Protein 1
Amino acid sequence: MSKVHRERFAYMAWNVTNFLALSAALAVLATVSVALRFWAHTKSGNKVGPDDALIVAALVSLIDILLLDKVTNIISAGCNQHGNN
């Protein structure tokens, strides 16, 4: 990559904190979307169908994966504190 490209995209440096913040923001957005979907179902009088159950299952899986990833990062960071000094 040329020097111009490196300077141009220097602001796009990703680290764990930025990635976790983006993941949390998207998880909140997904949760709000599912909540709005169920609110719309209640307002319109539509029944909850199997597609809604699958959406809830996917949302639970998403939140579970994010939490497990966060816990794994914390554990792996703590396990190396007695490494070679």
Protein 2
Amino acid sequence: MDRQIELLIERAENGEAWAQNEWFRLASEQGNRDAQYALGLAFEHGWGRDQDYKEAAKWYRLAAEKGHKEAKELLEEINK
């Protein structure tokens, strides 16, 4: 995973505001699987946005289709 994305996820897990959401959205729309995974996390956990499991699943699915292992695992969990 891209180190910049890892750092942004760590900051979100520590409760910091997600000013980076716009960057994740843009990178996700361009097909960046790590950004798609991170955007899924943001929606699942409500980091800097309303919690939305349906939207989280959408982004996890896109990342999983590109081979992102963690996204596939979380997609399976969220669909239980």
Protein 3
Amino acid sequence: MLVMIGNIIIFFLHLKLTFNIWNSNFSPVFDGLFDFCSMYTGASLEGATKLNHGSTDIAINWSGGLHHAKKFEASGFCYVNDIVIAILELLK
């Protein structure tokens, strides 16, 4: 799809309906997106797991905490709510 001034609204609607990723904070699809999300979410989960098992007293994920993702929607480069995933692990 060629995006031009005349069809930008249609393009944004296409993004929203196809990928559920468009809102006021653009979250682009890019090569390596799954790996990117897996790494920062996995790091938060690993930190929470280590805290639960008592193998560490402090866990910091400098790449995590992109916490404005919603339950069913990405927001501004935030694809996965890794904080909630870590909290769920801590609640075990």
Protein 4
Amino acid sequence: MCHRRSLRGELAPIEQLPLAPTGSERWQSFIREDRARSLIDRQLAECGWAVQLRDRMNLGAALGVAVREFATGSGPVDYALFVGRTLCGVVEAEAEGTTQSTASRSN
């Protein structure tokens, strides 16, 4: 059975993951959130942050390091922001137009 990593890092059977657009609201939300992450990646890099994947994390690569899909004690976050190797904040990617209260209800 083929497996692929889900957004939260655990293995999921490939049959359970959306492989092609289905027109469903959930799939469209995933696409919008992925676009938001791409924009956030660019914006963080333009501001001087070193954007890294969790499995290739190197907190010494720059003064400011943004780690994607980082696991915290209270659950995974889209970005963990480290300054001088110290966790100083997190960023949650949401689709453009999503309000904070809407995002809280859906997560």
